[in-house]
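Aim 2 progress update. The chain analyzed this quarter is reproduced below.
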Amino acid sequence: MDFKVTFWGVRGSKPTPGRNTILFGGNTSCVQIEAGKRNLIFDGGTGIAELGNKMMKEEGRKQADIFFSHLHWDHIQGLPFFEPIYYPENCFCLYGEDKEGETFQQVIEKQMCYPYFPITMEMMKGDYKFINIAPNQDIDLGEGIKIKTFAVNHPNGCLSYRIEKRNSVVVYCTDTETIEKQRREKFLEFIRGADVFIYDTHFTDEEYIGTRDGQSKKKWGHSTWEEGTRISREADIGYLILYHYKENRNDREQQEIEIFAQQEFKNTVAAREGMIITVGGDCSEKVVISYPY
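Predicted structure tokens:
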């Protein structure tokens, strides 16, 4: 097996716990990709707290590379509750972009200081370091794992990640709206041939253009499930994974979207908290999806 992908948070904007979001989940963005002995984490939304709880139950030293797509609240707000980083024997590398004249480290540390939070990062006794990254960067993690970055279309900037190992590819692409004109072809090349394409499907096309409520969502930085199916067909995607759901999207509505999307692109699955996808391995199918219930 090249990758084991586990979804710990699939919601956008804010956490939405409650009986209407039990099926898909209410935690904000966090996806774990296990690649051999390496533990990769994408985004630190509230889902990372549950991931941390699981890691604490496992034996041995905890290590991970944590990649942030960007630094809006719903992608960093779980980090203060990520328990493994408080223990000195554990080791973490945090990757992200500088923002608006502040370093990546400064932005992360700012959410954990008075009067916003009673615990500072200095109280985190784990061995952690900040690594600044940028668009169009190639990162070689060793052990045959390579990661490429691409700047997508979101206010204040956002990175998409292409994770490669041998002939297996997973793309993590949250918080972007439609990429157009010349950059569209570059984006299609970036995602082309991915076995698993995790994509921001926050809106429907009708919501995006404002057909129902009269308010256009253009320049809000989020895409649609319809656009996800269109680019998946164009880029020879294996499986499209719907992700980063609108905060007030209930389970029934999301189930309907999943069905509609499957009619446009057969290999479409709506991400659920606890869902696991394996890529590569001994199964006859290269991609195997296991649901949490």
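The longest helix spans residues 251-264. The first strand starts at residue 3 and ends at 9. These observations will guide the mutagenesis experiments scheduled for the next reporting period.
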